[in-house]
Design goal:
The chain has helices spanning 18-25, 48-51, 132-140, and strands at 7-11, 38-41, 56-61, 64-78, 84-90, 95-101, 108-111. By secondary structure, it is of the alpha+beta class.
Length: 144
Amino acid sequence: MAPAPLNLIKLSVGSDSIESMVAWQASRRAQGADGLPRHVTRMWPRREAELLEGGSIYWVIQGVLQCRQKILRLDEVIGADGIRRCAIVLDPEVVRTATALKRPFQGWRYLAGTDAPADISGQRANEEALPPGLSAALADIGVL
């Protein structure tokens, strides 16, 4: 059995829901020249090789970890200010996960595969997502 991949966890600042995050990623401003969604960050992950062995970025939306996207590659981006940044290029498919409350944090953090929440699969994957407030309340009491 292969070891669980290394992942990242990141706040989706400005997103109210999974749908609003997907809508943002569909905008040209959030995409690279290849049309794939990307998230640009100042810091380059030192554990790049591990992330690219099947890792995902897990998104925290409104204080609740709700979904993930597979990391396809890391691209170098030089900003207008001349500073080197890392573009985390993502698979456009968003996979809903079991929810978990998360406190705010800056930047991104590594998330071990063994600590990552399970994907919601089968019939539940097609269900409409719960409102963030309800999802957070249910996660807080251990129901989700």
